Amino acid sequence: MLWKIFTVALGALIMPLAGWVWSVNVEVAQLRNDLGDLEVQAAKLEEHADEQEDAAKTLIGVEKDVQHIREILHRIEELVTG
What we know:
By secondary structure, the chain is an all-alpha fold. It has 1 helix and no strands. It has one helix at 2-81.
């Protein structure tokens, strides 16, 4: 009789604990999947940021070239009119 009470009490403790462990494992698996997705998105964003940085450097170079051309045109204008 004592053995039956012991097994029922043990079952009452183990079954909820097993359910809790199962639900935690499911949540951990979902978090790992989400983490994988976020890592992919972060890699894409880093690539996009690198592309934008390259574009910004190119734009700065073009702006310097335009400024240089303006200076040359201004000197030519001074030579022609002066």
